[in-house]
Amino acid sequence: MIAKNILLTFTLILFSVSGFAQTEISFNDKRIYTTQKIVSAESPIIDGKLNDDIWYKENKSADNLGWTTNFIQREPIENVSPSEQTEFKIIYDSEFLYVGINCFDSEPKRINSRMSRRDGFEGDWVEIIFDSYHDLRSAFSLTITAAGVQGDKTISLNGANEDNTWNPIWYAASNISENGWTSEMKIPLSQLRFGDKNNQVWGLQVLRKFSRNEEKSVWQRIPIDAPGWVSEFGELHGLINLKPKRQLEIQPFLVSSLETFKKELLNPYRNSNIKNFNAGLDGKYGVTNNLTLDFTINPDFGQVEADPAAISLDGFQLFFNEQRPFFIENKNIFNYKFSSPIIGGPFSSDNLFYSRRIGRSPQGSVETLSGKYVKSPKRTTILGAVKFSGKTDDGLSIGVLESITSSEYAEINNAGKVSEVLVEPLTNYFVSRVQKDFNNKNTFIGGIITSTYRQIKENVNFLHRSALTGGVDFKHQWDSRTWYLGANLVVSHITGSKAAILNTQKSIRHLYQRVDAGHLTLDSNKTSLTGTGGDIRFGKAGEGNIKFETGVTWRSPGLELNDIGFMREADDIQNYLGATYSSLKPFGIFRTGSIGYKHWLVWDYEGNFNYFDWDIEVNGTFNNNWGATFGFFSQPHIFSKSLLRGGPRLHLPNQHGVWWALSSDKRKKFYFDLDGWTKTGNEDSYNLLENGISVTYQPINQFSISISPRYITIDNRLQYTDQVTYKDEQRYITSILNQETFSTALRLNYTVNSNLSVQYYGEAFITIGKYSDFNYVINPLTEKRNDQLKFYDKSQLSVDEANKKYLVDEDQNSIIDYTFTNPNFSFAQFRSNLVVRFEYNPGSEIFLVWSQGITDFSTPRSGLGNSFREQVFSKHPENTFLIKATYRFY
């Protein structure tokens, strides 16, 4: 029946979008630009004015002097002439590439020259992209705006992934004139990666953003329905005897900080302000022009913006993006998301390498008793890390990372007697990733190996002693990369003490102790655990209105990746499918439009069908550059194997809901983004409503302000509370949760120029959860809540306010049978960050930082506003003042 519904739904989607049909577009041949070598004496002055003889000579004619034009519009109407033309010229000498770009504009006073920090990509801009490996998958992108702000990023996966944390040293300037705006670029060859052939051929694309019309035009036409991006670039010829440059960069840094807080006179660790001084070194060495060795000694991440506030009630860990520069650079080479479909899903963050494990907060803890004071490190010190990465001429991508983190100790002061307890052991992390392309770069085969080794001692024997993972991946494309077939296989093996492996088996990711899981056996004598996983997918990437992907992904019960990787849940087999119909031309009131269908079906390894979710989404961008999204989802089949934390599978009510989004024209000084979603179902299901809005105002080019409030309410949600043994029976206690959450983020950005900026970020977060209708599960697989749960009578429950516990007299004989903790909570947090950044020399920076934060976790007192005031405004904040200076030698 479910399969018939899927087929019927998908058929209806295809019929419903037939009115959007567009004329088929044929692909154009690749364009070729031939550059010329000059002597260094002819090199231009980089002021953005294009008045050096090397650009135009005598009559200022572009004829036969290396200039090329005839750009074609890509958005909003593909394959028509742009509103304004663009021309560019590329020349080079033995050390640099030089690029001159002329962006014509008949109304130069209306050029959008908004300022921003580097990589802001605001207003009018032009981007030049080099596929210098000419592997048809990866590229280096350099952007300059009309305001002179530089941007740079690496591109991988044939355009599917972009990383703007790449920060090369290059020089650029822009100038607005009576004919439009012009720019010049000077790009050191040492900052790019290419082979050592005498006659080089690179992929080339130039893209212009004409902000006034929200229009993009390109030098090499690439149809909207092309199956890729980098693979369709034109070509750059004429690079003769171009010698690879071995890069050598050294960047030492100094950091001085001061922490202030409310003093605790009896606490020796909190009775005065804390001053710190730190120094370290980052470096980069080009072993060859294709392969780079990065290293860091005692890295500092003090100015990195904090993670967004969040709290997890389901027991699963939260995923946060990496923000540290050393681990971000070339991260695409190390990436091994073995289940990352285009439609996403709860498993799409699973990765054999999750760099945030390195330098994490210590995992051990210290029991604090009255009279004892503890000083624990906030993060694990990275003693050093080295990374070797790049791509060879024959298409072999290589990434090797080695890092050592120190032993970390918590210091305990007991009436003046000081002792130490280990909270994080000395650990070695290793990652090796390779990938090779074949078959004219249409086929890729790769592999990865990771390892974690810890020096286990007392107090941390709950951690694994070692963790090894390995994986192989494959992708084959055909019919001009329109169709593809891919597969990933992974295996993991962990070792440790009996306690460590038992702890892993019982963790929420595995739950070997589940009482109704006949395929699982909890073994308290195990000292190792092995598991496997993988993904097989098939899809259509382009050429035409329809794209789709379907596949199967799985994780065996013993798969464990979380020592150096990220994995949400094991014992899982999923089928996913997604199909999207997109317009290729504007139609009616729309610039673009699409409609899509996707679903997920989930089983465990015993064959139990646990989950079914199907969604339909419609997206559109209007001619006035407003955008809108509307979607509907249904979850007609839900069984949770984890909600009872080792108890039986539990039937949950069917759910359905909608989501929406609306965004205004971002070219305006004032614009907003609104989004939200809701979930509901029958009388036993829970109700959710979430709404958020982000409002931005930019009164002048140099200054912007934005505020992003968000409100979430959840009612009638069944939530795990505790489990106890009563008369030789296991009681799985649940309750009904009502929760409110409010957050808001404020951002202020003032950009004096592209090298000097001031940024403020402040976030307030408060969430309150109240539990009621306490009960225990009696028939977990039945559908009706009243048949599934046995609710406690008021006479069976009493409250111990002093110890925050519920007392249960189940048989009502005036003797307490068992207790469980009062789960009500109120979590409040305020964090802010003020950063002044000055890039006084290319790649060399000074940061002035003021951070402030308050975090409080307690029982609810009243509503959101009063709780936040009592938990945050009434507390003394902790402040950190930091000065960081770096200098980049190159």
* Strand-pairing-aware structural class: mainly beta
The gyration radius over C-alpha positions equals: 30 Å
Percent of residues in helices comes to under 10%
Q: β content, as a range? A: over 45%
Topology:
Blueprint: H1 2-16, E1 32-34, E2 36-37, E3 72-75, E4 86-92, E5 96-104, E6 125-131, E7 139-145, E8 150-156, E9 161-163, E10 171-177, E11 180-188, E12 199-210, E13 215-218, E14 234-240, E15 248-260, E16 274-286, E17 291-297, H2 325-328, H3 331-334, E18 372-375, E19 382-391, E20 396-405, E21 408-414, E22 417-424, E23 427-438, E24 443-454, E25 466-478, E26 483-495, H4 498-506, E27 528-540, E28 546-555, E29 572-582, E30 590-603, E31 609-622, E32 627-640, E33 650-652, E34 655-663, E35 670-681, E36 687-700, E37 703-726, E38 729-753, E39 756-777, H5 785-788, E40 789-791, E41 797-800, E42 805-808, E43 818-821, E44 825-841, E45 844-858, H6 864-873, E46 878-886
Parallel strand pairs: 1-14, 2-4
Antiparallel strand pairs: 3-13, 4-5, 5-11, 6-7, 6-12, 7-8, 8-9, 10-11, 12-13, 12-14, 15-16, 15-46, 16-17, 17-19, 18-21, 19-20, 20-23, 21-22, 23-24, 24-25, 25-26, 26-27, 27-28, 28-29, 29-30, 30-31, 31-32, 32-33, 32-34, 34-35, 35-36, 36-37, 37-38, 38-39, 39-40, 39-44, 41-42, 42-43, 44-45, 45-46
